[in-house]
Amino acid sequence: MESVPFTHCPTNKKNCVSTIDLTSYHRIEPLPVSGEVADAKARIHQTLKQFDHVEIKEEGTHYVHAVFTSKWMKFKDDLELYIDESTHLLHFKSGSRLGYYDFKVNRKRVERFKSLFNNG
Question: Which tens digit of pLDDT belongs to each residue from 82-111?
């Protein structure tokens, strides 16, 4: 696996999920992707457009960093996506910037993203 450009979830917080974590609470499976990196990036953009209150903050050839802002309290959550060309997997890290528990908001967001990405 190529090196993903994000870190593990904080072990003392239950407000984050990622494909590189091994603990059962934080772990989420990567998404298989086929085709060219540019195609996967286009599908990432297309999928993110189906969410409300999201803004792309940073982007690289294989990387996208999006920020979601909650409607009421304006909390910010970071979603990082990385396309691993060698394994044909899309890696995720989704975490809240504040607090210790997120009521599985980040896990649900990634699961919804995966579903929309696959059906897009």
Answer: 999 999 999 999 999 999 999 999 999 999
Query: What pLDDT, in 10s, does the model give residues 13-54?
Result: 999 999 999 999 999 999 999 999 999 999 999 999 999 999
Amino acid at 109: R
Q: Where are the domains of the chain?
A: 16-119
Give the number of C-alpha atoms closer than 13 A to the C-alpha of residue 45, restricted to the C-beta side.
11
Q: Would you tell me how many other CB atoms lie within 10 Å of the CB of residue 14?
A: 20
CATH-assigned architecture of domain 16-119 = 2-Layer Sandwich (3.30)
Neighbouring residues of 21: CB distance < 8 A, sequence distance ≥ 6:
8, 9, 27
User: Please, what is the Cα angle at 34 between 89 and 32, to 5 degrees?
Assistant: 35
